[in-house]
Amino acid sequence: MNAIEIKNLHFSYGKENVLDGVSLCLKEGRLAILAGENGAGKSTLLRLLLGELPIGESHKGDQEEGSGDGSIEILGQDIRQFKDWSSISYVPQNGMGGWKDFPASVEEIVRANLYKQIGLFRFAGKKERQQVRAALAQVGMEEYQNRLIGRLSGGQQQRVLLARALVNEPKLLILDEPTSALDEKNASHFYRLLKKINAEKRITVLMVTHDLKRASSYADDIWVLEDGRVKQEAGKGDGQA
Ligand SMILES: Nc1ncnc2c1ncn2[C@@H]1O[C@H](COP(=O)(O)OP(=O)(O)OP(=O)(O)O)[C@@H](O)[C@H]1O
Q1: Tell me, what's the pLDDT at 239?
Q2: Which intervals hold domain ABC transporter (predicted)?
Q3: Do the domain assignments include residue 195?
Q4: Measured from the CB, is residue 226 less than 6 Å from ligand 1?
């Protein structure tokens, strides 16, 4: 099955055409990167994939931020009918920015993503605590579970955000520039970790990055957004950066 299949996608904010016939296909189990210059439309494409921006007919009228057409299928289903959003996890850009004094532990940050399963007014049970521990172990942060989030380095915080995205055991993981605040060493470590999780857990990954040079050695598919369209480049996916 394809994790994502996009055909002839157009999107504009008012008169500004941002996507002008994007087509791409991400097969399940692969790791893909999406690059492109500032303003190329990468975040717009991610927002369409996450159902935050409309395609086709919509009933919200003037309140829409923009309008689009074309087709998007996620995990084999038309996005307009797609309901299984818990099978998709998203790591936003600068996810930890401004959390320096946030009074929550690593464990609480990861557990918060299980709120649908736990419910707002119930405490986490043994099963949920185990899920949190397993997600932290996947990113090598098990020992830090009681540490306040603001007392971690940028690289460690980014790994906690990854654990937070993994705790729901998603089929598809979407990341928006996860290494933009990291130095070279931490960025490479993050890519290796992502590749390992992709290979071992068979989680399909789509990552937006400006770091095409380093990230491309971990990718099966490399797409570059340019002039509203996607250009495909060969990926290596061997992780031998
Ligand atoms: N909500 C919005 N309303 C109007 N125009 C927008 C909106 N969001 C983005 N744009 C415009 O659409 C274009 C694409 O923006 P987008 O954020 O998708 O690019 P990007 O590739 O993610 O850029 P960057 O690498 O800088 O994050 C830009 O010209 C931007 O100004």
Answers
A1: 46
A2: 4-241
A3: yes
A4: no
Q: How far apart are CA 65 and CA 55, in angstroms?
A: 11
Ligand 1 in contact with 52 (CB < 6 A)?
Answer: no
User: In sequence order, what are the beta bridge partners of 78?
Assistant: 73
Report if residue 80 sits inside a domain: yes
Name the 3-class secondary structure at 105.
strand
pLDDT confidence bin for 241, thresholds 50/70/90: very low
Question: In Å, what is the CA distance from 98 to each residue of 76, 93, 202?
Answer: 37, 12, 32
What's phi and psi for 8, nearest 5 deg?
45, 55
The residue segments making up the domain with residue 85 are 2-234
Query: Whole-prediction pTM value?
Result: 0.90
User: Using a 6 Å cutoff on CB, does residue 38 contact ligand 1?
Assistant: yes
Question: How many structural domains is the chain composed of?
Answer: 1
Strand ranges inside 81-220, DSSP E: 88-91, 172-176, 204-208
CATH number where 126 lies: 3.40.50.300
Q: With CA atoms as reference, report the closest residue to 212 among 227, 196, 231, 199.
A: 231
ipTM for the predicted complex: 0.98
How far does residue 43's CA lie from ligand 1's centre (Å)? 7
Question: How distant, in Å, are the alpha carbons of 55, 129, 200, 213, 230 from that of 227?
Answer: 20, 46, 36, 21, 8
Q: Is the CB of 36 under 6 A from ligand 1?
A: yes
In a domain, 240, yes or no: no
pLDDT confidence of 138, banded at 50, 70, 90? very high
